Amino acid sequence: MKRDLAIVGVLWLALTVVGEAVVLNASLLPPLISNKGADIGHAFRVLLVYAVPVFAFVVAALIYMVPRYRAGAAETPPEDGPPLRGRGRVPLAWFGVTTALAVALMIYPGLTELPKVLGENRNPELVVDVQGVQWAWIVSYPQYKVKSMNELVLPVDQLVRFELTSLDVLHGFWIPAFGMTMEAVPGMTTTVQYRPTKTGSFAGNPLLRLQCSELCGLNHSTMSMPVRVVSAQEFQDWVRQQAGTTASPISTPSAGETRLTIAAKDTRFSTDRLEARAGAPVSVTFKNEDDSVFHDIAFYRTADAKDLIAKTDLKPGPVTEQLGLPVLPPGTYYFRCDVHPAEMKGELVIK
Amino acid sequence: MTVHAEPRRETVNRLGLWLFFCSEFFLFAALFAARFYLAGPYHAKVNQPLGLAITLVLLVSGFTAYRAEAGIRRGDRSAFLRNLLVTILLGLVFLAGVGVEWATAEFAPSSIFGTAFFTMTGVHASHVLSGVVAFALAYRLGLRGHFSAERHWGVEALVKYWYLIDVVWVFFFPVLYLVRA
Amino acid sequence: MVTRAVEQQSHGGPWTAFLPLVRGLVWAMIGFAVGAALTAVVRIAGGRSAWTFGLSFSVGYVFALLGWLLGVGMWERWGREWFGRPTVEEGPTDWRRYLAFTTDHKVIGIQYLATFVVVFLLAGLLAMLIRIQYLTPGGTVLDNATYNRVMSMHGILMIAVAVAIFVGSFGNYLLPIMIGARDVAFPRLNALSYWLVPPVAILLFVSQAFGGWDSGWTAYAPLSVRNAPGQILFCLAIITFGLSSIVGGLNFLVTIITMRAHGMTWGRLPIFVWSIFATSWIALLFTQFFAAAMLMVLLDRIAGTSFFAASNGGSAILYQHVFWFYSHPAVYIFIMPALGVTLEVLSHFSRKPLFAYRWAVGGFLGILAMSALVWVHHMFVTGVPYKLEAPFLITTEIISIPTGLIFLTALGTIWQGRLWLRVPMLFALAEVFNFLIGGITGIFLADVPTDAMLHNSYWVVAHFHYTIMGGEIFALMAAIYYWFPKMTGRMYSERVGRLHFALMFIAFNGTFLPMFWAGVHGMNRRIATYVPSLQGVNDLISAMGFLLGISFLFFVANMAYSLVRGRKAVANPWGARTLEWQTSSPPPVENFLVPPVVTGHPYDYGVPGAAPYAAFAPAGGSGEASS
To answer: Do C80 and C159 fall within a single domain?
Structure first.
């Protein structure tokens, strides 16, 4: 019996050493490029350090005991084994060790790291309001009066606080590269705060995307927005550019202009082609007829929806909005609903 | 508990009944907790006199239920039937009272207090209804001489169920009517 | 209760077996019409339209359910008593009894087993569909809407299997026999518990005609308040299923407490019975919260309440509290009977006493106690104040301690044993390994900081498949192979069983281990399409998943063939001591020809001079006292 114990002990030690070597040296996680991500990655590694000897113990015991004590697979059972009851010190020792492990774990990296990761206490340099709506994200920067539904741009090395809410059902605010997720809950504001530590973009790093992580219905899988982390200067440039292109809607139609009407119903526009005469301003009456569904209509110069001309505010139906477009040279322009760009899009032809 | 290979049927039935009550307690506890989570300790304007009246009706019906069971336990069929009938009638009065309360409520189910109020009183009332229906069946059986001093487990179980419903109301009524306005 | 025995005709064509089902459906339709009509009358009196889908369907369903139960046989066996009429004591005694309102717990156990194995395989086919979808990141097989419905259906069918298959099948079949009783405490209630299940299946499938539901099995509000009407049928199905679970738990508790054989003290109970005991408390008490959550969703939909409508002061977080207050303890319904069976098999197939038996019992009771105190760990990233999350981090860590005691017993039982590596033992050993991984990976979710990273990622999917499938389903396989000879009187094929085991074990780990990697590399769950960088790992998972599906073909083939052509089994092919092996295979209707008197302990292998576990009175005794 002593020999068996010794062999299991050696096996356990060997597996533990190998396991810890892997855990402490290999990069098991993708790079988490935020300060919180670093804390979380650290906690993850510590948990693995705890887990390795526990896993190795049971595995060492099993892989030794099964071949060592096997007694065939015959028709009749083998003879009985020794009547070990387990009434003495072994269970007590096991109980003691497992309790000590659980207590140690819950303190570190449990309770000690909990306030670091979820406790907000410092003033952020940047505040970003995020609204989840079926099925898109509306990101706005109140300090700069800028809104975006195409991409989330952040300056590196600045503490940013995200104020999250949902306009309809539960959504999950998850940027895998930064290592944390937080729910966006209708009727309340949840917050998550961290500092991105490296620049990058979705093109180079698929984890740099804002992905909805809480099942929210039909297009949950595609409720995603690319994230870009840029230098402070680039961020300021981008903010300035965004502010310049947000045209304010003109509410009253005036003479000599083309009046167009378009409606949204059942997540479809009533037409995918609008026409207007060149040389006159265009006034668009947009009727959102989808009860409590958010739609807008946004006009762009290019099909990739990067060059905004003007758009209405995003509102749930039923509601009617007026939008004024400036005088545009003849050509083809593009409109879409920013929240449902796949199903609701079309062309505006000026000739 | 001593080990019987053939336990007395009453022991088995009573244990089953009590376990059932434990389960029901959890259902009412869920609604109770939700009420406070949603609407805090406040209540909207409710019909206090009506609420008090139906509470008294229900408590009296608990007493008559007790008398009914005591009656059959000592073999007094007429006392049993009489009290059972009164219990049924009082139960119906209670349900009518809840109906009036619902019809004349000054708050809608869509309000947060209304959500709690209508759900709690509704789930409770559905239990009262099931008790009344079961009592009616028991009354019919009793008329045909089905129960006796030695064999009346059905009555005992239903009366205890009625007590459970009363006790739930004893908790529901204050938290819907008597807490802060 | 006035009764008379009624001769059940065994003549008449085989189609008469389906009469109870047909009559159940007919009476259900009548009930539905009655309920809908009542609703219409009340609505018209109030000046509204006669029919509105949510309310009319729900009220109609309540009456339909009653009609179904009475029609399928509850009327003759039970309902008549409420009207002072004599009830029928006996039902059909041939194979027709499996399609009738039969009160014999062994028949009910087989009804449950057959039903839920079929449900499991159907849900498994849905999983295969999901894995086909995941072969490409763009997901060209299913569109988003269909994917959500497939994923949701896969989820709820598997959850239903997880809740009911152990308790319903083996709990029902084995429990009375293992404690030396003739049946459960409330045999008619037991039949009711089973016959509540077909309406659940019908509702879930019919819901697809009303748009199905796309909120997963968790049906979070507010999505579940505003999605397709099929969600209403889902809510009604869950409430029905909850009723079945509550009633079943009640029955087992009373049976274990009051109907143990002479000499069967709590200290001599088989560990499987202890695990069912602990499980039954959860089923009895906590299921009401699942029903409450569903009721709240229904009321928000059909009565205009505002439980979850933020604009009126409602809260989506309330749903999660009510839902998880049941659904966390529910996972211990999944795993405790599984651990109980694993320990049984480990003892009998190591030919050793169950190591630290009392500590194992303490483990189950500790899990039961702690299970009520951990639910918020599903909500760590919903904006709950982090200081309120700390206690739940603590309780979730603590629950690992009683769970660890089960591992102590498992390893200690194997230690120095004589390991009889037949198929049940292989599955039991694999279960220990799989559940180890499942348990350890759960720690990463119990720890709030790491949970913040892993919540709703594929790590979670891998974790719960390791615990539920690796733990419960592997133990289910052990149980099926172990008790197959007892229940069918035949032996399964050992060779095909080993093939099944090998393929299933390798394919299972191959399928779900990579999911941990996918989770930390940015794959979230419940998605129809994913980012292209994850295609490699998903193709691997799908390939292994298909292998896993194929392994079940070996299982089905083994079962089907052995049922019909398997070698006849003896009463005690395993030489095991517990009571079910001291009676014939399959047991007689009354379980034991002579009631047993327990004189020893169930796991006293290798104990010199150990008393036999039970004695049977000499006159006409057919059971042999175990050695």
So the answer is: no
**Count of positions (residues) in chain A:** 351
pLDDT digits (tens, 9 = 90+) for A278-336: 888 888 999 999 988 889 999 998 888 778 888 888 888 899 999 988 888 889 999 99
Which CATH number applies to A258-350?
A: 2.60.40.420
A10, amino acid identity: V
- Tokens 């093939």 label which residue? C499
**22-81 in chain A: CB under 8 A from chain C:** 28-30, 32, 36-37, 39-40, 43-44, 47, 50-51, 54-55, 58-59, 61-62, 65-66, 69-74, 76-81
Grouping H, G, I as helix, E, B as strand and the rest as coil, residue A336 is: strand
CB atoms within 10 A of CB C612: 16
Same domain for C50 and C184 = no
- Show the 3-state SS of C374-397: CHHHHCCCCCCCHHHHHHHHHHHH
What's C185's domain CATH number? 1.20.210.10
Neighbours of C303 (CB within 10 A): 17
Q: Which residues of A touch C389 (CB under 8 A)?
A: 114, 118
Chain B and chain C touch, per 3+ beta carbon pairs within 8 A: yes
* CB atoms C312 and B7 under 8 Å: no
| Within-domain flag for C93 | no
Specify the CATH superfamily of domain B27-178: Cytochrome c oxidase, subunit III, four-helix bundle (1.20.120.80)
Residues C53 and C143 in one domain: no
Does residue C458 lie within any of the structural domains? yes
CATH architecture of A126-245: Sandwich (2.60)
Amino acid at position A179, single letter:
G
Whether A256 contacts chain C with CB within 8 A: no
Q: String of b and e for B165-180 (b: at least 16 CB within 10 Å)?
A: bbebbeebbebbbeee
Interface ipTM? 0.95
Model confidence, pTM: 0.93
- Per the CB < 8 Å rule, is C386 touching A61? no
Structure-block tokens of residue C101: 């309102």
CA dist C496 and C426 (Å) reads 13
Phi first, then psi: what are they for C612, rounded to 5°? -60, 155
CA torsion sign for C556, C561, C566, C571 is positive
**C-beta of residue A240 within 8 angstroms of C-beta of residue A317:** no
* Domain that residue C407 falls in: 103-565
Six token digits for residue B139 = 């009354």
Conformation bin of residue A260: beta by default, left when phi > 0, alpha when psi is -120 to 50? beta
Q: How many whole angstroms separate alpha carbon C307 and alpha carbon C316?
A: 8
C65 lies in the same domain as C196: no
Quote the CA–CA distance of C604 and C581 in Å, as a whole number. 15
Q: Is the omega angle on the peptide bond into residue C588 within 30 degrees of 0, that is, cis?
A: no
CB C99 within 8 A of CB C14: no
Backbone angles phi, psi at C88, to 5 degrees: -90, 125
Residue B115 near residue B109, CB atoms below 8 Å: yes
Number of domains in chain C: 2
Same-domain pairing of C141 and C70: no
Residue A331 has a CB neighbour count (10 Å cut-off) of 11
Strands (E), C364-497: none
Domain ranges of chain A: 2-75+87-118, 126-245, 258-350
Confidence band, pLDDT 50/70/90 cuts, at residue A1: confident
* CB within 8 Å: C305 and B31: no
| Neighbour tally for A203: CB within 10 Å | 9
And the tokens for C419? 């390991």
Q: How far is A244 from chain C (nearest CA, A)?
A: 33
Q: Distance (Å, rounded) from C-alpha A232 to C-alpha C302? A: 52
Q: What are the pLDDT digits (tens) for B45-79?
A: 999 999 999 999 999 999 999 999 999 999 999 99
Shortest CB distance from B15 goes to which of C254, C303, C306?
C254
